[in-house]
Every structure is written in structure tokens, then in C-alpha cells.
Amino acid sequence: MNMASKKLRRAGLPQELCKRLSRHQITTCQDFLCLSLLELMKVTGQSYWNVQKLLHTVSQACAPRMQTVYEMKMKRTTNPSSAFLPTTLGDLDKILHGGIACGSLTEITGPSGCGKTQFCIMMSLLATFPTSLGGLDGAVIYIDTESAFSAERLLEMARHRFPDYFATEEKLVLIASRIHLYREFTCDSVLKRIESLEEEIISKNAKLVVIDSVASVVRKEFDTKLQGNLQQRSNLLSREASILKYLAEEFSIPVILTNQITTWLSDGLAVQADPLSPADDFSLSEGKQPFLLQLKLDPDTNLHYYS
Ligand SMILES: Nc1ncnc2c1ncn2[C@@H]1O[C@H](COP(=O)(O)OP(=O)(O)O)[C@@H](O)[C@H]1O
Ligand SMILES: [Mg+2]
């Protein structure tokens, strides 16, 4: 369903036709494909055969593309710099084969105060760097649901970690203007924001999406003790996860999510004290596992686990 939300403008239809269709509130592939042939002939003003051709174009544009494993491997081998966003933490990058993977979702989990937000701020900074310095040379879309993002902290990190690069004020202004922050505090507004990300990514040339944190608004609004709520909550989270997965793949960008974990055992295994904790919803949503990397930050040992 998420591929179907692709805008018709990006599906290869003539711009004039897209304008005409948008006057009828037909803007996505899904809107287009849900209409009958007769309705399509009426709204496009085109012949039966032309409408058949248009249907083919739109279906192709939103159908998942087949890619062989060999092609995927070659793409990464020929252009390894665009396959990962290095974290600049040597050990972690080694474990991750180069950094946070482009084209997939990465979930950072750990207890409150373990450094998830700091990590996201650092990754945002790194994504704006030129590719020659290991960055992605792009903008960042940062959805903050806990008012945790701090611009001062970002600039502080920039000056402290990369004093040479940020020797002039000009570079600081440039990175600061490339990070677009959205504060969303309700489930509804987070979902709406996620649904509008495709346009944002294109218009801002975003190369990283961060959602910190993905579950806090859900935790606030849903009472897990009520069975119906649980279903609704899980539907919401899987809808969000599937849109984000589509965006990560479509634009070959990393998407970083944070999620608070409730209990932490001394042997390094994280367990959900509340088995229905939202941290599980993303990881367990159907079909997401192969695309989801989980980094667990441990505040005591500074170790990073991944699964
Ligand atoms: N501006 C800052 N300067 C230095 N350390 C900070 C700053 N902000 C937060 N920290 C430290 O980073 C730690 C991790 O914070 P944070 O990333 O917000 O955790 P989380 O998002 O996992 O709850 C905090 O315990 C705090 O000590
Ligand atoms: Mg945080």
C-alpha cells in the first residue's frame, strides 16, 4: 500500500495531465488505480487505449521493483560511499560494515538517558557533511516528539568534534540550515508528517530522516490494557514503519528511529519489562525484520549491541 501513495507527478505521467487530475483530487497512484476505466477516460479526457497505457505506466511506477542479489551487491560495491553513513565511532562502524545503512530502517533502543538523542543529533550533523568527508551531503529531516533536540548542542558537537572544518561561521550556518526540525507531539501529527515526507525529502534533498522517538507519543495516547487499543496502536506503528521503509528504499537513505527500552539486564541482554512495549511493535511488524537493524546503547559499558 505504501508504494501506492507515490505521487502521480513522479509516476511518469505528463505534467499537464497531473494538473488536470489533481483538480479532481487524484494525486497518488492509489487514487488513480482505484478508478474504473470509464472514470479514468472521463477525468483524463483520453481514449480507451490511451487510458490502458496510462494504467500500465502508473502500475509500473508503483509496483515493487525486482532486483537480483547480484545487482544489489554490485550497487554497493561500485558505490560503497552511498551505502552507509559512518557513525565515526570506529568499533561501531566496524560491526556495521561501514556505518548506518542507507536504504533501511535503523532502530536505536536503550533506556532513558543512554544517549539515543545525542546519537541522532550527531548523525544529523554527519549527514550534512560532504561525501568526501564521509557524509551524505544532504539535508536532514528530524522529527522530534519529545522536545529533546537542541540546536545549541548540535553546534557544540560540530565545533568540538570537527574544529578545523567548522573554523568559520559560514560552515556552521550551512549545516544548521540543512537540518529541518519538526516537533510533533501527537500520534496523528506524527503520522501526518510521515505521510508527507516523500515531498519533503525531494524538495529539501534530504539524505537522512530521524524520528526521536517513535513510540513516546504512542505510549502517551494508547492504554495498552485495552485490547482494542492494542490493535489500533499496532496498526498505526506498522503503517508508519511501512511508509518509512518505502522511503528509505526509494531514496536509498538511512532512516533512524529511537525507541526507549524499559529493562536492561547485566549480561547485556535487553528485555521488555512490559511485553507490549511499543519498542516491540516496529521490530515485530510483519516483514520488517530483514530491513531493521537494532542498535542497543548501553549506558554503563558504552557497548553497542545489534541484532
Ligand atoms: N548538552 C549536553 N552536553 C553534554 N552532555 C549532554 C547534553 N545533553 C545530554 N547530555 C548527556 O547525554 C546523555 C544522554 O542523553 P540523551 O541522548 O538525551 O538520552 P536518551 O535520548 O537516550 O534518553 C545524558 O545522560 C546527558 O548526561
Ligand atoms: Mg531522547
TrEMBL record:
The keyword DNA damage applies. GO terms for molecular function: ATP binding; ATP-dependent DNA damage sensor activity; double-stranded DNA binding; four-way junction DNA binding; single-stranded DNA binding. It comes from the Eukaryota. The keyword DNA-binding applies. GO terms for biological process: double-strand break repair via homologous recombination. SUPFAM superfamilies: P-loop containing nucleoside triphosphate hydrolases. Residues 81-261 form the RecA family profile domain. GO terms for cellular component: Rad51B-Rad51C-Rad51D-XRCC2 complex; replication fork. It is found in: Nucleus. Keywords: ATP-binding, DNA damage, DNA recombination, DNA repair, DNA-binding, Nucleotide-binding, Nucleus. CDD domains: Rad51B. It holds the Pfam family HHH_XRCC3_RpoA. Involved in the homologous recombination repair (HRR) pathway of double-stranded DNA breaks arising during DNA replication or induced by DNA-damaging agents. May promote the assembly of presynaptic RAD51 nucleoprotein filaments. Binds single-stranded DNA and double-stranded DNA and has DNA-dependent ATPase activity. Part of the RAD51 paralog protein complex BCDX2 which acts in the BRCA1-BRCA2-dependent HR pathway. Upon DNA damage, BCDX2 acts downstream of BRCA2 recruitment and upstream of RAD51 recruitment. Part of the BCDX2 complex consisting of RAD51B, RAD51C, RAD51D and XRCC2; the complex has a ring-like structure arranged into a flat disc around a central channel. The BCDX2 subcomplex RAD51B:RAD51C interacts with RAD51. Interacts with SWSAP1; involved in homologous recombination repair. Interacts with HELQ. PANTHER family: DNA REPAIR PROTEIN RAD51 HOMOLOG 2 (PTHR46456:SF1). Belongs to the RecA family. RAD51 subfamily. This is DNA repair protein RAD51 homolog 2. It comes from Podarcis lilfordi (Lilford's wall lizard).
